[in-house]
Amino acid sequence: xxxxxxxxxxxxxxxxxxxxxxxxxxxxxxxxxxxxxxxxxxxxxxxxxxxxxxxxxxxxxxxxxxxxxxxxxxxxxxxxxxxxxxxxxxxxxxxxxxxxxxxxxxxxxxxxxxxxxxxxxxxxxxxxxxxxxxxxxxxxxxxxxxxxxxxxxxxxxxxxxxxxxxxxxxxxxxxxxxxxxxxxxxxxxxxxxxxxxxxxxxxxxxxxxxxxxxxxxxxxxxxxxxxxxxxxxxxxxxxxxxxxxxxxxxxxxxxxxxxxxxxxxxxxxxxxxxxxxxxxxxxxxxxxxxxxxxxxxxxxxxxxxxxxxxxxxxxxxxxxxxxxxxxxxxxxxxxxxxxxxxxxxxxxxxxxxxxxxxxxxxxxxxxxxxxxxxxxxxxxxxxxxxxxxxxxxxxxxxxxxxxxxxxxxxxxxxxxxxxxxxxxxxxxxx
Length: 430
Hints:
430 residues, mainly alpha
């Protein structure tokens, strides 16, 4: 019989040998993870610089892990890493299938699992996973940003504002944080607060080059807010700054709107025509010019501008109302009546959607807020989200015909069985 010291020594040598073998065996995974992180850092820097990053490192990491899994197909570490890489290759469905096998455990794995859900629009599923990441890493700035994004998408705007403020207080994130707060205020319809936050962001980053967003879009948003709060001259400056960075028909329409506020109708008309030079069937530009034609008693010009807009699947009430006015001015009473009836019908639908959106904005966690979110989740075939939301409804909710039909559609995973929104009761604020 061997002495105990010799036995212990042999065991230590064996354990050390196994550890060395495993360390060598997992070396490709460490290499692949390093390549992934390097590729993601390059993407972030490119976003800041306004350039396009090469994805070569991410693709190399994918091939390394693929080869590794051919040798060790049951490696949970390898499966989880491959799932992470697939998320960043914009293949979220495949990533989630692998995460279901590997069970994400580390903050990086959980965060990428949440991102896969977000890419598919499953924000209800992503939210608790991101919260789990933050329980492990409270100062994870990307997770706080993504938490805010989820809350915005779910209509949890007050909570989103709280996490946006938390993001703003993180080191080197003040400018992006003010932009994030501006986004929340914009969703809340608070233009004054939105402009204030945008001005704070631009004070820290005047050229909007470090905000990880398209500067042209940012100046357009800023100008739109300024116009809404009655600062037309400042808005025009912001719109022109946007156009210097990139010509966009929406921006030209906004320039026209600002020129109207400033009392320059001829400059407004010129801007709207510039919008049509970029996008010939731009609805807002055609409507603005049609309105000018009607005011100038040129109904045929207005009709010619508006008729192309009726070829789409949906005609807005603003287009149909202008057609009603134009045909009436042209003396075609039959056509005027036809468009008048259409306008009345479409306004009913638009008013209903305004009510629905108001509930989602102001009371997303109420019974009707959850029911509407479940309806929307199923309509986009997000079955898991729809089931989770329906499960939170009180038992007595099914006394409501709309909710009873909703539950049936969710249980059957059948979007075609969803009740129409016009079947909702008048009072949705329960």
